[in-house]
Amino acid sequence: MDLKGKTVLVTGSSRGIGAAIALAFAQKGANIALNSRHELTTEQMSVIKACGVDCIGIVGDVTQDAAAIITTVMTHFGQLDVLINNAGVTADKLLVRMSSTDFEQTLQTNLVGTFNMITQSLKPMFKQRAGCIINLASVVALTGNIGQANYAASKAGIIGLTKSVAREAALRQVRCNALAPGMIDTAMTMKLSDKVKAQIETEIPLKRFGQPQEVAQTAIFLAENDYMTGQTIAIDGGMTMY
Ligand code: NDP
């Protein structure tokens, strides 16, 4: 896919990995719809527009506003070529302290939110007979993690969802893949103490956290390569190579 002039929607793109992905697609000439639950700032929009592309900010929660988000994209741009399901949350707790509400809330945003966005996007993509969906999973979907049963389950669900969407949508030339980042330097991992971060770094073969831009490069690769579907690519400094 040549990304120039295409429309790309990135959920949860006010910061971190989502913001880096949005910028990378803008640098390829794609028009961008940013999204988060809070108002996007003029500065966030200007960074994208400085690439010479169109950009809108859509306030909406993927758990309840998926239809409205897609309607706004279609009304403004008239097409939706790439959907990046990036919005995600963590709510870490050991299992003995995790209530069913803690479990359900994380699944609601990460997994159900992704499902909502996909089902709404498939309508215009099927009509276009073209489209690309990229879902943000995580290495913990592959390995599990202490204190992250809710998060790991939501991200493992995303991998199964990705493969099922890829199978159902392939006949209409819509592709669906997942990215499984390891430890990436964002607000999400800033919550960890320096001691915990240093310990994690010793366990990463490349001995450092990844940068959001490195995840964004892989998203570009998945969007541009028309023969990739149903795959999960780990981008994790070697954490899951064993
Ligand atoms: P951040 O916490 O930095 O950013 C999350 C983004 O999602 C924000 O823009 C936030 O904005 C938005 N968001 C959260 N909930 C919703 C919602 N219900 N509807 C719409 N937007 C929402 O996260 P990262 O950039 O670190 O992570 C991005 C994705 O990558 C997530 O899916 C995460 O699970 C995944 N990931 C991250 C890793 C890491 O190490 N950082 C590792 C593996 C995977 P607002 O709060 O304003 O809504």
TrEMBL record:
Please give one Pfam family short name. Answer: adh_short_C2
Q: Does the keyword Transcription regulation apply?
A: no
Q: Which residues form the Ketoreductase domain?
A: 6-186
Enzyme Commission code(s) on record: 1.1.1.-
GO MF, one annotated term: oxidoreductase activity
| Superkingdom to which the source organism belongs | Bacteria
Specify the enzyme's EC class, one word.
oxidoreductase
Keywords noted in UniProt: Oxidoreductase
Which InterPro entries does the entry link to?
Answer: KR_dom, NAD(P)-bd_dom_sf, Sc_DH/Rdtase_CS, SDR, SDR_fam
Protein family membership: Belongs to the short-chain dehydrogenases/reductases (SDR) family.
Can you name this protein?
3-oxoacyl-ACP reductase family protein
Source organism per entry reads: Loigolactobacillus zhaoyuanensis
